[in-house]
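Incident review: delayed structure delivery

Summary: a single-chain prediction request sat in the queue longer than the usual turnaround. Root cause was a stuck worker, restarted by the on-call engineer. No data loss occurred. The affected request and its eventual output are reproduced below so the record is complete for anyone auditing the incident later.

Affected input:
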Amino acid sequence: MITHPDKVLFPDDGITKSEMAAYHEAIAPLMLPHIRRRPITMERFPRGIASKGFIQKDVSKGFPAWLKRVETPKKGGIVNYPLANDARSLEWLVNQNAITLHVWTSRVPNLGKPDVCVFDLDPSEDDEDALREAALWVRDVLEEMSVPSWVKTSGSKGFHIVTAVKGRATFDAVSGWSGKVAATLVARHPKTFTTAFTKADRGGRIYLDVARNRPGATFAAVYTVRARAGAPVSAPCTWDEIKAGSVGPRSFALRNMAARVAKVGDLWAPLGARR
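Output delivered after worker restart:
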């Protein structure tokens, strides 16, 4: 049950809470297999994206008894993360005015062993050609290692490139490996890539963020909506689309995803079978 369905969450577009709920109901069959059993961090906007939102990890209070959660340790205490294992749970998250869902790279019950590895391209400047070329370079390095990769729009400024992991490796192993891949890319293309965390040190280069592969780190869930005008969606795309320049970081949005999915289905469906 969605409360306050007429609440406007995206004022420039007139997108209401009800429309957000309808989108998630429709996308749930594709989205849930990718986010099921992953701890979720909610990016909530109770007054819509025109007002300041907040990040919420813990649902120790005010949650329904049926909602699945997972308890994880933190310094000085614990965090009870929500899980979206079914459409009902996804609807509950939407009802909390959660616009964007950020997920771990591992799943319950094996939270110490990630099943995906993420390369997040975060450009310092708005240069679509450079961003597209950079994404293809990441793909090429992974192909040299015989590692298949999948790509999605971030719904923000860049692209997320993901590889599947068998689930036997630790966070230290996956993080270390992704760091070596990043170092290779920086060495080959020093004018394009950087791993400098501080924006002042990036010098206009694309930040190759592999910190998403550390314990407790998150990345924007596939098919999640981003808190930007137009309600862009972090949606799967193909390498051919990247190469052709027909897809950019915000090409897909809440209101055009139905047509997109009807045309291509779930482009990430094969991911889990090729670890």
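Verification: The mean pLDDT is 95.
Action items: add queue-age alerting; document worker restart procedure.
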